[in-house]
Amino acid sequence: MPCVQFLLDQFPVELIFNVFTYLTANEIIHSFYNFSRYLRQCIRSYEQYKINFKSVGKYEFDQICKILRPDQIMALTLSDDEETPGQMALFFTRFPTFEQSFTRLEYLRIRNFEEFPDLSQMERLHTLTIDIIRRPSYSFQYVQIQQYDSKFAKIFCLRTLHTLIINKESSNIGFTFKTLPIAENLQEFKMDLRSIDNLPFILKRIPNIQKLTISLNISSYDNDFTTKFDIPHSLTHLTIKVSYGHRHEIKQIIESCSMLIYLNIHIDRNQVDILQWIDSDWWQSVIDEFLPQLKIFHLRVDFNTSPNLPGITARLEKFQTPYWTNNAQRHRSFTIGVMPFDMLSNDFKQEIISNKSISINLPYNELSILPQNRISNVEILELEHATSTSECYTMSDLFEVERYINNLSTLVHLKLDVTCTITPSILSQLVNIAPHLTRLTISSFDNHLHPMMNFEYPQIRWLDMKCEYLPRKVREKFCSSFSCLEHLLNCYVYNEEDFEVLIENLKHLQNITVHIHSYYFDSSDEFDQWLKKHTDLKNFTFKLINERQMQLWIAH
């Protein structure tokens, strides 16, 4: 019988490989693996896969690990969050000789240090990103995360590493910077620092740094901070996010960076004196005195509320002078922006910072502040109701948010504060006009979920219950209303039977984070045996956060 010929089978392998560069590994396997023998051979020969396992389904994870060889992977992102619990432990169990088998790996991103591999033998690894996430003190992992110093020191010893990015939330994790080895080859470094006091120790360990990004959570412990920074002359790019800090501290850093060509300052909304940073004369004097090479300057200042105040407007208008707006001839670019709303008029040569997230306090009244122009391209909408009582406000007309938003069709995620809710008909309207609205966060069962359960919402695939209990009497109704749910987070149930009902009835569920009030598991083995006995799950992995809280990752 003659073999069927496909058009793609006639394309040269170089062209097929060029197509692969625009697709994820999951897209390549899903689209082409069962298409023809020739394309399967191309898939098995391609050696530049960039794999991102963040938010991936377990079935897709299994397929990629089964089909691709480790030496085909050039970039790898592993996740271990509540959408993919236990992924890293499972991955390193499948590839126990990780450092020897992933011979072409150049970029690696992992989460926390619990299952951190030995990277000393990896000769091509030049970029490492580690997402360090806060663990609660009652977590089983709390003791482990206090032992990060030795692993952090080993990373600084990697000879091929050029870029190190540590994304650390404001957390209960600290590092001892004084004992770190010197990283001669490190050219780019990003990290969240507890205070500016740690910066001198870091700078001594990265003598050839070119790009530095730091976040400062608190001011110096020394009220008379006078530290002189010995900053390498190789540093040309500096980004600083200031959560809590003083202007003179930032100035002391900048005045030691005479070779900077790029400076990016982001002032977080938690500052006590936010106005000190919107000072055009001060910034101009700092740039002119200390940064003769500067070509690009970005300043972003966040506000808790809309900055439509006379004092702020007057300060922003001072950034309209030719020094800030006419830099083309000097080949410079200066950008000033404020959040959540940009107050600069359209004729300013400033970059408008796009805001894809908006929080609205309902109901609208004479004290409410509307933006000059309605916001476009909003993806995350949070509804709040500021009140001194426990009274919940119910929004019954979309016009209440359309005052602020130009087009709701781009909405992806709706968040409801504990004292603000919407009617089921409003949610139905939003689902109809926003085809990408698949995420819902609720903060009160009585105010939010209970009234909605007479309707069905197959479009909602992701639900965060914010630690709200799901009553037994409505658990089946809940499963019917959200029949296509794939991700269920922070759900509290009263007993293990409620948990079992959720697993049995939510047929599309890929991951769940649940807290069981009246039942607990002493160990991971006990929970594993319970799952095998009380559910039909065959392909799953999990993480036991504590005796009553667990995260489950499921393949259907």
Summarize the helices and strands and which ones pair or pack.
Layout: H1 13-20, H2 25-32, H3 37-45, E1 49-52, H4 58-67, E2 73-77, H5 87-94, H6 98-101, E3 107-111, E4 127-132, H7 149-156, E5 163-168, E6 188-195, H8 199-205, E7 211-218, E8 237-242, H9 247-254, E9 262-267, H10 280-290, E10 296-302, H11 310-317, H12 322-325, E11 333-339, E12 357-361, E13 380-384, E14 393-395, H13 399-402, E15 413-416, E16 420-422, H14 424-433, E17 439-441, H15 445-452, E18 462-469, H16 475-481, E19 487-493, H17 496-505, E20 511-516, H18 524-534, E21 540-544, E22 549-554
Parallel strand pairs: 1-2, 2-3, 3-4, 4-5, 5-6, 6-7, 7-8, 8-9, 9-10, 10-11, 12-13, 13-15, 14-16, 15-17, 17-18, 18-19, 19-20
Antiparallel strand pairs: 20-22, 21-22
Domain F-box: 5-56
Organism: Adineta steineri
Protein name: F-box domain-containing protein
Shape: globular
Distance between the termini: 36 Å
Here the CATH topology of one domain equals: Leucine-rich repeat, LRR (right-handed beta-alpha superhelix)
Query: On the 0-100 scale, what is the average pLDDT?
Result: 84
Poorly predicted ranges: 341-354
Number of strands: 22
CATH architecture heading of one domain: Alpha-Beta Horseshoe
Strand order of the main beta sheet, please? 1-2-3-4-5-6-7-8-9-10-11
Oligomeric nature of the chains: single chain
Major β-sheet annotation = 11 strands, parallel
